[in-house]
Each structure stands twice: as C-alpha cells, then as structure tokens.
Amino acid sequence: MILQDYLAALPMGDLKSIAVTLGVQPGMISRARLIREITDQVFEPGYIDQSVDDLNEEARGILLAVLSAGDAGRVYDTRKPSNEGLIEHLHGLLNRGLVIGRRPAYRTVDFTVPEDLRDMLIRNFTDRLAGFFQAEAAKSEDDESRDLTTVRNVFALVNGLRHNPARLTDRGLPYKRALDAMMDRQEAVTNGLPDSEEETPDQMRFVMDYAQWRGLTRIEDGRLRADCEFESWLAQPTTEKLANLLSFWHAGDRARSPAVSALPGILRLCVGFAQVDLDQILRCVLTCSSPHVRTDAFSAEEKAEILAALRELEWIGLLRQYDGKNGAGDGLVITPAGRHVFGGQDWPDEQAWSTQFVVQPTFEIIAPRDLDLRIREKLEHFADLEKVDLTLTYRVTRDTIYRAANADMSGADVNSFLADHSEKDVPQNVAYSIQSWGDAYGQVYFMETFLLRTASAEIASHIKAHGELAPYIKGEVSPDALIVERKTYRELMDLLQKQGYMPRSGIVGPAGADSAPNAGQAVQGPRSGNGSGLRTDPKDPRERSGHPDQGDPPADGAQPAPPESERKPVLGFGDCLPGFQLHKGSGGVERNAPHIEQAANMQYLSPGQTEELLEMAVKNNHRAVVEYYLGNRSRSFLHRIKPIRIERTRGTPFVEAHRIPEGDVHAFKIANIRAIRIVYEHEEQAGGS
C-alpha cells in the first residue's frame, strides 16, 4: 500500500493529527487537499532523513524492525499495558507518516512501511549502519565455486533419481545404500561458518524437502523417483530458481520465527557493502525481533537459530560467510545473486555458469562445479559422475555409451557434444572408442514376428495372389507361414472371413504351433506372454474399446528398432522384406498433431479429428480403413475406402468415397465412423509388389 492510499482511508481526525506533526495547518482545508498537502510534505527532499534523525534510538530500532519485515509487516501487541513505551513510539512513527497500520486478520494489527517510502528509508539506514556493519573485505580461495550450491544439489539429486530411483523403507525414508549414493552426488559448502557434524545431512534434507515441495520428485512403487516437473524447472532461468528456493525458505518454520523473519530485510540494507560484520548482523536481527531484547545478553539458542538460517541462505547462493582472521570477527558477503534477490540489482545469471570442461585420455571428464545445468544434464546421458570435490569427475565407458544410445544419442552425437564443450581437443583414443561403441549399437536387435499359418502351401499361395489380401502379407518364413503386421491382423481376419477362408478366431501360442493346424486356420508364431492360446473375439466390445483381452498382441512399437544410420549389414526385416521401414531412433523430427501421424492401429477419434484425417486423405490421394456404425449403432463393419471429397451441405459432415473392392461411391456420415486408419503410400506399394 502506498502512502496516499493509506491516508485516503484514515479518519479526518487522524489526518489532522499527522498534518499538525508535519507542520501543515489543517484549518478549513478539504479532505482531498489535506491528503495532498501531507503527501507533498512527506516527499519533500530531506524530510525522511530529518525525521529519522529526530527519532531516539529505540524508535529507530522499531522503525528498522518494521522496515525489515517488508510486505509481511511486523506484528506488535499494543493491548498490553506494559508496552506503553512501544505504543508511544509507534504513535510517533504513525504521526510522521513513516509507518502505516493494517489489520490483515481479526484482532491482528501489523505495521509496515508504505511501499513508496521504502527505498528512501533503506538508503537512510544503509548510510547510518555502514559504520557498524561494514568490515574489511577478506577473500577466500574458494569464493565463486560455493555460489548456487543448492541449485546444483537439487539438480544432482533429481537427475540422479531419473537414472536410479531410490528404494524407500516402510517409513518413507531411503535405504542407507540409496541414501549414500544420493549423498555422494551432493556438494558441501566449505570455508563458511564452523560446520556441524550433521552439515551434509542437513543440506541433503533441505534439498530433498525442496524437491518434494516443488514437485520435482514423487513416490511410486516404493521408490523415490524424478517427476516430469523437473524438465520445466531445468528450463527456468537461474533467477527464477533462486526466487523459488527463497519462497521455500520463507515457507519453512525457521523463517517464520521472530528471530529470523527480519533477516532478509536486514540483508537488503547490506547489498552495497563489500563485506559485513556478522556479529553486528546478529545483534541487529535480534533487536528487530523484539523491542525488549538486550543486545548484550541474547541467548546461544537465538544465535544458533540465526546462524542456521544464514547457512541455508548460503546454500542457496545468496551470501558467503568467512571465518575472521587476525582477531577480526566473522565476515559475510552478499553474492551477485543475493544483490539481485535482496536489492533488485541487475545480474546476468548466464555468466554464473561455466560451459567448458576437460576430456582426459583416461576417459575421465573434469568439469567445474558450476557447469551449466543443461550441459551437465546432457553430459550425464553418456558419463557417470564418479567424484564431487572442488571439481566434478565423470567417466565414459562402453556401458554409458550404450545407455546414451538407448536414449537416441549416437556415438557421433557424443563426440560432437564433447568437441563443442571441451577446452582442448578431444583425445583421439577417446573419440575413436566412442565412435566404435556407438557404431556397434543396434547391430544385433530383437524384432517381433506375427505369423499367418495355413494348412498347406497352396492356401498360402492363394492368399498371396489375392488382390485384396496381398497388401497385408509382408514376407514368409516357410511356404505355409506368412508374415503379417501385428497391428493389422484384425482387419486381415475380417477380410479372410469375407473371402470365405474362415480363419480361427483365437490366437495360437507356441504350444499350439507344434501341432498341425486344420485347413483354413490362422496360427500365430512366438509371442510374449505365457504362451497359451487364448481365444479372442474380434467383435468383443472390450477389444473394440481399446482394452484388449489377454490374447491380444501388445501394441506395435514396444520394441526399439535399429537406426537408419547403421553402417554394417544386418539381416533384419528392413533388408529382406519389401516395403518394411525401420524407424529412425534419433528423434528430432517435427511432429504433427498425434492423430495426423501415421497410426499403428485403428484410431478411435472424435468426429472433428476424423474429419481432419479424411481431408488429408482426400488431399494426398490416400486410402483409409474405417469401422462404420449401422444406423442404430448396434453393429459396425470394416470398410476399405478411397475418399473423394467432404460434403458439408447437409448440416452434418459426410465423406464421399469409393468402396474397395466394390468400386461404387458411397456417402459415409463422419459422426458414425467409430475408428479410422489411413493407408499410406508405402503400404500400398508394399502390398502391390
């Protein structure tokens, strides 16, 4: 609240009292003019400095306590008769317009400084306290590397959980081995205040609590795992990460205590100092916490509470603390990030991070602790963090390159990344080994097969020669065992029935494949599961609604396919079957809307999305397979169509299409199309070859 808004809400009697204190003659002045006269007087050059000089030491202490509380305000109990002196000082501050009183809740009154007066008062107190706070600057060998420790530790914790979720006990705590592995990735603040034996566990607890509070971790199946929210956190600028950490710090129990709530406001006064005397900070904070605190007799518990809060702010990266030397007291320095957070100073946060590391011929990567988090995240795709000290030590192995390849990062990608961020040329033996390991990836791979078995080679040859059935045949294992696509076997089953082949409705597993099938039966080859032949009904509503029975094959795409960039010949489907395509695993291709992409199965879409697909089919001259409801929606049938145009003049959209193989033109109501799959050009070519 600014001063003018506060004055506008005051009774006329209070306005006149302020006017008399400021030397403004209220007389018969109107309320609006009186508010304007008071505001002009308060903002006269030199008024703030003169008013603070006129206060006695106790009143200045109360004003400093209110100022340090910021927007939250400082609550004082003005109902106790023993607080007469406090009430008198607050009344004097109110009459001078330096503070305003608010009632944020029932029977609660807090005092705060008007927003438009804070900067002037901060400058006044900064100049006033400079002689007490400012100390001789001392430097440490490890100044910069200690900044932003908690930001890096949050990354280390959550990114480690992405690769290795931590097992939890019944009480929800990590097992000792998992906790030790998590702690090995954490940094500890050094050269600060005397560390307790529980320093590292305290930091670890702070980081874990923040990650849970921010939603970066979750508990699932008895393990602590990284959450998808980590990606958005990682993309945030450093300033936003710090603001979020400070919000978590304010939400903690310690930050809400009277002895610590004034700490951020006091630190704001120290932004312009090279170094601050820590003892004076403690005395000032304790004085602001209560008007009755004796600065020469504060307890060890109160001091320990403030030191713990300062240590947490140091973890976050807002300040640094040093042991005093040559008889001087302990020192405190506000970091550039702290000056930005506390004082609003400009801070190019991208300059706070390093972007280069060193690759050793021993396959070790030596990186600074302040390595950019996005670079570090990509580095940990293909390297294991072995040691955290003054630097970070990573190691590249065959297994880590294999892990990166499974995440669509080839050996060439790894070498390119290392070349971009290495201070020196990547050693030749390292680059060669990485390329070799990357090239070996995918030379051996597993693929699923789905077989259509026939009682004789003659039946199989008839199916291969049939114009409508031939597009579904992708190859053969033997004269009576044809390879078909798992995703289209239901369409093929309906077409076989339509052509009079009468295929068996069940899928026979490996156990049933040993016995000779009867004529006209379709038998599946090896598949995952328990191997039993489970009956599946293609008209079962559970199947049609996208909830397959146990006999239904798993969705296509569950097994990774080798990349197109492989250099050595591989005897796979892509080499021996016409029209079969291996999907590139490197990613990075721009994606359309999901329903526009080539579907592995029939898609159950909304009428609007179905209309979009049909428009695309008309434009590109594609064919489609649709599952179409009858008028009463009691039954549905598969139709293979070639769309001609979309008709919208009837009030509801229709698609006019040639039916295949009938050849006649039929109008299909788009709202009655339950499922659809576009047949792309390469599928048609494969069927015709």
What share of the residues does DSSP label as strand, in percent? 5-15%
Structural domain count: 5
Q: What level of helicity do the residues show?
A: 40-55%
Outline type = elongated
Let me know the average pLDDT. 76
* Total DSSP E strands: 21
Largest sheet: 5 strands, antiparallel
Query: Measured on Cα atoms, how large is the radius of gyration?
Result: 37 Å
Model regions low in confidence, pLDDT < 50 over at least 5 residues: 191-198, 511-591
Cα-to-Cα separation, first versus last residue? 78 Å
Q: Order of strands side by side in the largest beta sheet?
A: 20-19-18-17-21
Structural class: alpha+beta
* Tally of separate helices: 28
What does this 3D model show about the protein?
By secondary structure, this protein is α+β, with helices and mostly antiparallel strands. It has five domains: 3-132, no CATH class; 144-349, no CATH class; 358-440, no CATH class; 442-589, no CATH class; 595-688, SH3 type barrels, CATH 2.30.30. It contains 28 helices and 21 strands. It has a five-stranded antiparallel sheet. Strands 10-11-13-12 form a four-stranded antiparallel sheet, with helices on one face. Strand 19 and strand 20 form a beta hairpin. Helix 5 (57-68) crosses helix 15 (278-289), helix 8 (149-163) packs across helix 10 and helix 20 runs antiparallel to helix 21. The longest helix has 17 residues, at 300-316. Residues 191-198 and 511-591 have low confidence and may be disordered.
